[in-house]
Amino acid sequence: MRDRIDTFYMADLYGELQLSPKAERRSWHAPVPGLLLVTIAALAALWLSDHYGAPQILLGLLLGFALNFASADERLRPGLDMASQTLLRFGIVLLGLRVTFGEIAALGLIPFLGLVAIMAAVIGTGMVAARCARLDLRFGLLAGGATAICGVSAALALWSVIGSKRVSQEGFAITVLGVTLASALALATYPALAAMLGLTDTQAGFLVGASIHDVAQAIGGGFAVSDKAGEVATVVKLSRVTLLVPLLLLVALFLGRQGGGNRFSLRQGVPWFIAAFVAVVALNSFVQIPAAVGQAGASAAGFFLLLAVTAAAIKADLSGILSHGWKAFVPVAASTLTAFALALSVAWAL
Known about the structure:
Blueprint: H1 2-6, H2 12-19, H3 32-52, H4 56-66, H5 77-94, H6 101-107, H7 109-132, H8 137-148, H9 152-162, H10 169-196, H11 201-211, H12 215-225, H13 227-242, H14 244-260, H15 266-269, H16 272-286, H17 291-315, H18 318-324, H19 330-349
Helix pairs in contact: 3-4, 3-5, 3-17, 4-17, 5-9, 5-16, 5-17, 6-13, 7-8, 7-19, 8-9, 8-10, 8-19, 9-10, 9-14, 10-11, 10-12, 10-17, 11-12, 11-13, 11-19, 12-13
């Protein structure tokens, strides 16, 4: 009966808030032990990244897996939950400081429409690949959406809307691992491929910005080609990031119809942190925010997301991840190849 009731909610966030048993009253310091563990692991990931150059998110994920045994201690659960849920949502809100509406307008209508078509095709590929690999359709939606928009950040935002009842901690961890590795491989190969194919700076910038998942790696890949290509890659990549909000709204609508055909409502379908994200983007677009504030907010967003990924890895069931096998990476792989092929096609047309 409970499963039937859960389906009427646009996202698990609301089902958990309204249907779960009343949580026991905890003291204010209950989350402290778990938060300390996650913070220490995240700081270790930052140190290793600075000294060895590996992606912070990948290192946080691996350190979280190494600390997976700690999830059995109930004293750590409140802090782990806070890091993987509350801090995650605040991190998503602060991501709005990286984007402005002006950056979308600077891209131009035709390239932007091409970018939207690429993103739609990539998400569809992820869902089709999941079905072909006999995986859950919503797992394919998570993998395709993360690949189409901005990698780990999009995976975190989508997972917040989809919910852990629809895609497990293990499925989320697999998606994060897949998009992180795919993005690192793309950074190492796409700039060289652009040079081999004789693409112009504008074409190379569009290819890199439209197909590499991670924001920093997409921008870095563009500047690895040339300054002009880096500028184009930056605009294209940030335009992809702005597509996160409409994607989340469409996902909420999709899950609502799938759950029971009930009417979509903004009050029920839009989590507070998505509305706040849009508000921050608007503020960043129309108000001159001091550079120091913007940089501090963007850094805080990155650290909160690192904490969320690390906490999710600590809470994940490693045996469940291993049981998925290689097929679990099929949606990310198929989506990545589709993104590259379509981005190259549009780049040639520019």
